[in-house]
Amino acid sequence: MLQKLKNGNHAQPFRGPFSITRVQPGDIIGTESTDTGFGPLAIIDHAVMKKGLTIKMHEHVNDEILSYVWSGVMHHKDSVGFEAPFARGKLMMMNAGKGFWHEEKVTEDEVEMLQIFVRPNETDLSPDIQFHHKPEDNRDWYVMAGPEGSDAPLHIRQNVYILDAHPKAGEQLEIPMYDGLTPFLYVMNGEIEIQNMNIRKQEAVTDIVNPLPPLLAKIDTTIVLFFVDMNAPMSMEGTISGLQK
What we know:
Elements: E1 3-5, E2 11-14, E3 18-23, E4 41-49, E5 54-60, E6 64-71, E7 74-78, E8 83-86, E9 90-95, E10 100-105, E11 111-118, E12 128-133, E13 142-147, E14 154-156, E15 160-165, E16 172-173, E17 182-189, E18 191-194, E19 197-200, E20 204-206, E21 215-217, E22 222-228
Parallel strand pairs: 13-14
Antiparallel strand pairs: 1-20, 2-3, 3-4, 4-11, 5-10, 6-9, 6-11, 7-8, 7-10, 9-12, 13-15, 15-22, 16-21, 17-20, 17-22, 18-19, 18-21
């Protein structure tokens, strides 16, 4: 049975020049658990960052973080000395492990982006950072990140895959399957329909038993699709991914 996560009840830990809508994927299951996570998929921060904002150098520990920019340019600087601008189509994966520092700055138009927090399979792994250029407007699914040893261009120390697609209004899109993994589909922008259920911006849908049926894009839409091992071993020691409700 399809289950929907509506956009009216998300947490908002920051508002102002740096605004976060904190999506807690575990809420889609509808239990009374204090856990934010859908298995090891812990938190999706849907952020808007205004021009002139600087988020000073800060540390993450035991978070696997995919930065996914939808609009604008985010300038990144980190503790290993790497500096670069990130815009739509350029992905960054921070495998924080036992500790990784970074800074974010917006010098041009405002940025809208996701920071996706996954719990690693072990505590205090070696820190790493990865980058990848992808198509900006792929209409079909593009695999952005996956477990170590997979063919994904960015690796997560967890049994999780992350894909995106940008279907145009009126287009139908089949949803793939990964054996043994559970889907969680998030609408970054736009609106889709699945079996007469409308899923709008900052909403999500899953079926924890069956594959998801095809979707129809009601308008031009950006969607991010996760496949999650709900029973994976995971560290709960993450700076953000380890947070509880």
